[in-house]
Amino acid sequence: xxxxxxxxxxxxxxxxxxxxxxxxxxxxxxxxxxxxxxxxxxxxxxxxxxxxxxxxxxxxxxxxxxxxxxxxxxxxxxxxxxxxxxxxxxxxxxxxxxxxxxxxxxxxxxxxxxxxxxxxxxxxxxxxxxxxxxxxxxxxxxxxxxxxxxxxxxxxxxxxxxxxxxxxxxxxxxxxxxxxxxxxxxxxxxxxxxxxxx
Length: 198
Prior knowledge:
40% of the residues lie in helices and 14% in strands. It is of the alpha+beta class.
């Protein structure tokens, strides 16, 4: 809700984003992510996270559970390039957890500036490695026909490129898009039997 001149708006559940000075927890399977946003002072955000993590640790301890510091990490997302290398002081169970610049979450590699460059590089590497499979299947003496190769490419190549594309695609620079397109074209040339161009 919003408060202005001692008047509060109606309450509304947020489906996206984290409100200023807010903490949100998102869980999937046996993992959870704690997200905090706020004013530009990173230490203040870390302090709020540490208070929340202490409360969470107490909650878990009462149920004979424990947060694992060795399996935990922290990442700073910022538009300020001078802050990208900041070591975050986030404490779990009395131990400072590691700060990771490019965490992988549900198969998508994030980076501090949301440019998704590491993710696009990983896509290219995976498509290139799968192109080798297509080349093996496209042998001139016994190889699969063009239709089977295209179906295989869609299953093992295009699926890599299209995974979570709405999340990362709008952030990529032209160079990264071009690199992905070159990898896709090379795989398609192999799948269509144009081996000399691949």
